[in-house]
Amino acid sequence: MRTDNRADDELRNIKLEVGILNNATGSAYIEWGKNKILVGVYGPEEAPPAIEIQDKAILKVEYRMTTFSSLEEHGKYTPNRRAIEISKVLREALSNLVLLDKYPGGIIEINILVLQAEGGTRVASFVASVAALIDAGIALRDIGYGISAGKVNGRIVLDLSKEEDNLGQGDIPICMSRTGEILLLQLDGKISREEFEKALNMIRDKKDVFVNLIREAFYKKYRGPIDNDLVDII
Amino acid sequence: MITLPGDKKDQYYLMIDGIENPIEYAYIPKPGDIVVGRVIAEKKNVAYIIDIFSYYALSAMIKTINIELKIGDFVLGTISQNDNLEDIRVIKNALIYRVPTSKLSRIVGTKGQMIKLIGQLSKSKLGVGRNGVVWIEGGEISKAINIIDDIVRRAHMKDVLDYIKSKYGDKDEN
């Protein structure tokens, strides 16, 4: 039995919007349960000569939690240990999806701002970042998705909330591409090999949920009414 | 039908049914493209550095262009094989306006129909560079910009030419 009466493989409600920041090249806003995350993508621009790489672009990811976004991190807006870690793992996950060698000597910046946190922000940030990168028109090899699995009361469940994360025996956030390559995998706690394989299969089954989520977000942007004046939708 | 990156082989951008171009992407310089840039620096007796609104700037060698430029000048040129700008000429007395690169083909239209229409409606001269720069000379510049904005907003839709004709053309006759 879970704290909010969900089934073992049931996700919380997810809402995704794209193209909401005017000054960013691409942007996305995700509401995943009580998580609220804003992502802006800027670039590609010319990289400063000191950090420039000749044959490919640099990806810069900055994950930040706002003050009072969660009960634990309140009062800390400057990057803390946790923010630096998540920025690093997201950068490594996303740089396997972006075709960086298309933009030699360039830099692409991704700014992730967590307005409200309730468990699973790193996978939610990953999904929103992928949508924002598509919106920015940056070349992607494939789209990616991610869910955090975990062990609560001896059972493997998907999409842990904050309470389940704190009370459970383990937490495995996994991000992967549609073809099944694993881009991000972290483990906090103790989980057996069989349990891990079960969690991986449960996450794979949720692939279509995320593909449709991203597709619908772009459908809303490009097929919805323009600037509130009613236009015939083709 | 909306297709996402990775839906088909070698598809890297978002695409919408009926429109061949991806919706929006950054400009990647290619040899042979005609682009508009802005002079941002001068290396003495060697080259000018020209910002072409991409993710890197190009240089124009002083020996090959035979023309004197000032910092801040807008220039039109062709990208050569070794990432230099050639065949340079200066754009004067024109307004420079930027649009997303991918929506440029909608502004030009099939066989240049759309850009001719904008020119007729606003009575100004227009030109485009591959890097998403439109320059507008004379006539009603603000009207031309309004029309261009409208096309960019509707770039993923059909029958934009008729829409522009009916929205801006009728008012002109009255």
Walk me through the structure.
The complex is a heterodimer of chains A (234) and B (174). In chain A, 28% of the residues lie in helices and 30% in strands. Chain A has five helices and ten strands; from the N terminus they run ββββαβαββαβββαα. In chain A, a hairpin with a 7-residue loop joins β1 and β2. Chain B folds into two domains: 34-91, OB fold (Dihydrolipoamide Acetyltransferase, E2P), CATH 2.40.50.140; 95-173, TATA-Binding Protein (2-Layer Sandwich), CATH 3.30.310.210. The mean pLDDT of chain B is 85. In chain B, α3 runs antiparallel to α4 (141-153) and α3 runs parallel beside α5. In chain B, the strands form three sheets. Chain B has a five-stranded antiparallel sheet. Chain B contains five helices and ten strands. The interface between A and B is medium-sized, with 37 and 25 residues.
Low-confidence stretches of chain A: 228-234
The total strand number of chain B stands at 10
**CATH architecture of the largest domain in chain B, please?**
2-Layer Sandwich
Question: Poorly predicted ranges of chain B (pLDDT <50, ≥5 residues)?
Answer: none
Largest protein-protein interface:
A-B, 37 and 25 residues
Average residue pLDDT of chain B: 85
CATH class of chain A: Alpha Beta
Shape of chain B: flat
Order of helices and strands of chain B: EEEEEHEEEHHEEHH
How many strands, what sense, and barrel or not for the largest sheet of chain B?
5 strands, antiparallel
Number of helices of chain A: 5
**How many domains in all of chain B?**
2
Radius of gyration of chain A: 18 Å
Instruction: Please report the total strand number of chain A as a whole number.
Output: 10
| Number of separate domains of chain A | 1
Mean of all residue-level pLDDT scores of chain A: 89
Task: Bin the strand percentage of chain B.
Answer: 25-35%
Distance between the termini of chain B: 40 Å
